[in-house]
Amino acid sequence: MRVGVAGALGRLGRVACAAIEAANEMTLAAVYTRRGDSPLPHVHGFEDLDAFVAAGLDVIVDCTVYPATVDVARAALDSGISPVIGATGWTDEDLLVLADRCDDAGIAAMFVPNFSFGAALMMRFAAQAARVMPRAEIVELHHETKRDAPSGTAKLTARRIHDAGAPLPAIHSVRLPGLVAHQETIFGGIGETLTLRHDSLARDSFGPGIVAAVRAVRTQPPGLTVGLDAVVERMLA
Ligand SMILES: NC(=O)C1=CN([C@@H]2O[C@H](COP(=O)(O)OP(=O)(O)OC[C@H]3O[C@@H](n4cnc5c(N)ncnc54)[C@H](OP(=O)(O)O)[C@@H]3O)[C@@H](O)[C@H]2O)C=CC1
Ligand SMILES: O=C(O)C1=N[C@H](C(=O)O)C[C@H](O)C1
């Protein structure tokens, strides 16, 4: 499988390149970076998005930032390539437009605001907890160079809680040096609280989920899938 990485020189992009390189059935065939530099000497770097999507790719893992990520996804779909989008900052409206594009193009895509399995489990458990303890608030804590707030993980957790029938939780964002990516989802009941906490202590935590998402998007029916839920459900089955 020929995989391309957009935003390959960024923090997430470098993890994606390493994970794809290490995956048996995948070849890191090309990268897209703003100056055309490649993190790996044997992988061609493109600075032109149209040339990148014309490089014979099966899947593009997008690790750029919003709003560039919207252009990458659109270019992938226009070229018949499945995007696996890791960049966050997408609005609900952007995602609706993306879902329509996937349907119109008949192509499978994934939007995965957090590739770590632990975060996927936290969101699953949060949706379960919300059915019993519907009052919740989310505190997300990230490194100080993160551009978007609230985080994509927090927004998806809030949506999962709301989809479970509970009120949409408030989200509190903390940006401090020393942090990587952390979240507490706190449920309050009568005389008790339940806290679900997830910590990405290193960005390596995103590698296995990136590979799993690339595999999953190849077997998925056309359309947009949000999150790693289906992947995690299969592991739990
Ligand atoms: N899904 C997940 O599990 C995770 C998601 N993220 C999300 O991924 C995104 C990237 O995070 P992170 O790697 O920390 O950020 P970085 O700033 O380290 O990397 C962002 C990359 O995007 C590139 N970029 C910026 N602007 C443009 C543009 N206009 N066109 C093309 N490329 C551009 C940058 O290129 P250049 O090097 O040239 O500046 C850089 O390589 C964020 O949205 C973040 O929230 C982060 C971690 C995990
Ligand atoms: O920018 C980050 O670092 C991260 N972004 C994602 C998000 O917005 O949820 C995933 C993870 O939290 C790291």
From TrEMBL:
GO terms for biological process: diaminopimelate biosynthetic process; lysine biosynthetic process via diaminopimelate. Pfam families: DapB_C, DapB_N. NADP(+) binds at R35. GO terms for molecular function: 4-hydroxy-tetrahydrodipicolinate reductase; NAD binding; NADP binding; oxidoreductase activity, acting on CH or CH2 groups, NAD or NADP as acceptor. (S)-2,3,4,5-tetrahydrodipicolinate binds at H143, G152, T153. It is an enzyme of class 1 (oxidoreductase). Coiled coil: none annotated. Its main location: cytoplasm. Pathway: Amino-acid biosynthesis; L-lysine biosynthesis via DAP pathway; (S)-tetrahydrodipicolinate from L-aspartate: step 4/4. The keyword Oxidoreductase applies. It is found in: Cytoplasm. One of its GO terms (cellular component) is cytosol. The active site is at H142, K146. CDD domains: DHDPR_N. It catalyses: (S)-2,3,4,5-tetrahydrodipicolinate + NADP(+) + H2O = (2S,4S)-4-hydroxy-2,3,4,5-tetrahydrodipicolinate + NADPH + H(+); (S)-2,3,4,5-tetrahydrodipicolinate + NAD(+) + H2O = (2S,4S)-4-hydroxy-2,3,4,5-tetrahydrodipicolinate + NADH + H(+). Its EC number is 1.17.1.8. Residues 1-115 form the Dihydrodipicolinate reductase N-terminal domain. Keywords: Amino-acid biosynthesis, Cytoplasm, Diaminopimelate biosynthesis, Lysine biosynthesis, NAD, NADP, Oxidoreductase. Residues 118-231 form the Dihydrodipicolinate reductase C-terminal domain. NAD(+) binds at G7, A8, L9, G10, R11, L12, G86, A87, T88, V112, P113, N114, F115. Catalyzes the conversion of 4-hydroxy-tetrahydrodipicolinate (HTPA) to tetrahydrodipicolinate. Homotetramer. Belongs to the DapB family. This is 4-hydroxy-tetrahydrodipicolinate reductase. It comes from Vulcanimicrobium alpinum.
